[in-house]
Design brief:
With 472 residues, the protein is α/β, with parallel strands linked by helices. It has 3 domains: 272 residues, Ribonuclease Inhibitor (Leucine-rich repeat, LRR (right-handed beta-alpha superhelix)); 90 residues, Leucine-rich repeat, LRR (right-handed beta-alpha superhelix) (Alpha-Beta Horseshoe); 59 residues, no CATH class. It is 19% helix and 19% strand. Strands 1-3-5-7-9-11-12-13-15-21-23-24-26 form a 13-stranded parallel sheet, with no helix packed on it. The chain has a 3-stranded parallel sheet with strand order 6-8-10, with no helix packed on it. The longest helix is centred in the C-terminal third of the chain and has 23 residues. Keywords: Glycoprotein, Leucine-rich repeat, Membrane, Receptor, Repeat, Signal, Transmembrane, Transmembrane helix.
């Protein structure tokens, strides 16, 4: 037997050994509730694919797993595993392509040795209790495409030593204790393939240079040039279709969304909840293919750069809770035609809101906390000094005995009544006008419908008599 896939069933109890000797073993999404057997390594010596994710395994990760020298994919995510990361994983990185330990209770530091021949393509340690720093030897993993260590307690500067990993597509450092500036100096200071960047909820500071962070073709190019849709995945290379599908969680439109399949065209930048300031306007304008941009809860000042209007693919823009000033550029309303979510709240913006295209669909919540803004969706209308009062209550409308008349609603009715009276009243009051009016109307109807007034023969006699009178 080569493949044994028992995923998404209701298997439960303890995981017994020895396991079936197969190359592809998938026991994910079941109800196993036990420790991982200490001797598991001897059962999976020939295995290339092992997934025990989304169960209830607890205890430590057994060192014997490292005996599986042929292992290409190891997924132990979504369990309750504890303890430290086995140091032997550093040796396993020579053959391992995917290591996913996401959503466990692992403690300690990331193992500090990675082989010079590291073949890791995905390293996902998100939602654990890891501390320390990002080890320098991780830069040996030049094939790395997905690096996700979000929601841990890593205390380190921005990892510029990873900039030579040219294949990196996903960088998630969210909710840690990273500090300092983002920009990296020197040659090869960007990741040319980077498409998802999540650095939210850290202590990053200084001037933001997005171009130095993500100068990738994926974010800058016109997506229309990419006609073929592709997903990030890892091919275990077992001689038959054995793919591992990468997944990741992003914050999109204010909600946490788990991307089960990651399109290579999907681009997102989330730098919220830091202390960044003064982005370079030209840098923001080059991100033409970005779908999500979140710069909220930072220290940005100055006006909103009009160059943001060049982000024609943008669907979600959040610049809230900064100190942005000036007016909202019309270029945003003209250029962001696919925008579904906009949040400019709690800044220092002034002037009228562009009420065109997508901007005409956003409600007051998108602009609240900007006392100087005015527009149709706000209580402060442009041209008025004071904000409009709320709609009157029942008590307000009955607080006085004098009736309130809104002349705007009566203007059309008064106009009609005036015009109607100008025509009808003279006919009713003046007999001479009335006789002439009816005589004139009668002659018009006689010329149009003479047969209604006379029979056929008498009609011809009258007509002949009139013609004779006209000749004389």
């Amino acid at each position: 037997m080569i493949v044994l896939d028992l995923s998404s069933n209701q298997l439960q109890g303890q995981l017994s050994t020895p396991l079936p000797s197969v190359m592809h073993l998938d026991l994910s999404r079941n109800n196993f509730n036990s420790v991982i057997p200490a001797s598991i390594g001897s059962s999976i010596i020939s295995a290339s694919f092992l997934s025990l994710s989304s169960n209830k395994f607890h205890g430590q990760i057994p060192e014997s797993i490292c005996n599986a020298k042929s292992l290409r994919v190891l997924d132990l995510s979504h369990n309750s595993l504890s303890g430290t990361l086995p140091q032997c994983f550093s040796t396993l990185s020579r053959t391992l392509g995917v290591l996913n330990l996401r959503r466990n209770n692992l403690i300690g530091t990331i193992f500090d040795k990675f082989s010079k021949y590291c073949r890791l393509q995905t390293l996902n340690l998100n939602e654990n209790l890891l501390e320390g720093v990002i080890p320098m030897p991780l830069a040996n993993c030049t094939n790395l495409e997905v690096f996700d260590i979000g929601n841990n307690q890593i205390h380190d500067a921005f990892p510029c030593h990873l900039k030579k990993i040219s294949n990196l597509r996903i960088l998630v450092l969210r909710s840690n204790k990273f500090y300092g500036s983002i920009g990296c100096e020197g040659p090869n200071d960007t990741w040319p393939m980077l498409q998802i960047v999540d650095l939210a909820s850290n202590n990053l500071s200084g001037r933001l240079s997005i171009k130095s962070l993500a100068n990738s073709k994926t974010m800058m190019a016109d997506n229309k040039a990419y006609s073929e849709l592709k997903y990030l995945h890892y091919n275990a290379g077992l001689g038959f279709p054995s793919y591992y599908q990468d997944t990741i969680t992003v914050v999109s439109k204010g909600l946490q969304i788990e991307l089960v399949k990651i399109l290579t065209l999907f681009t997102s930048i989330d730098l919220s909840c830091n202390n960044l300031d003064r982005p370079k306007p030209k840098d923001l304008g080059v991100l033409k293919a970005s779908y999500i941009l979140n710069l909220s809860f930072n220290a940005f000042t100055d006006p909103i750069p009009p160059s943001l209007g060049k982000l024609s693919e943008l669907e979600s823009l959040d610049l809230s809770s900064n100190k942005l000033n000036g007016e909202i550029p019309m270029q945003l309303a003209d250029g962001l035609t696919f925008l579904l979510v906009l949040n400019l709240s709690f800044n220092q913006l002034v002037g009228p809101i562009p009420f065109v295209k997508q901007f005409a669909t956003f409600l007051e919540a998108s602009y609240e906390g900007n006392k100087g803004l005015c527009g149709p969706h706000l209580r402060t209308k442009c041209g008025s000094v004071e904000p409009h009062s709320p709609f009157p209550t029942f008590e307000d409308t009955h607080s006085t005995s004098r009736p309130l008349i809104d002349w705007k609603f009566l203007s059309a009715e008064l106009g009609f009544a005036f015009g109607f009276g100008m025509v009808i009243m003279p006919l009713m009051l003046l007999k001479r006008w009335r006789i002439r009016y009816y005589k004139h109307i009668d002659e018009i109807f006689f010329k149009i419908f003479p047969q209604l007034y006379l029979g056929g023969k008498k009609y011809r006699q009258v007509r002949a008599h009139r013609n004779l009178m006209q000749r004389h």
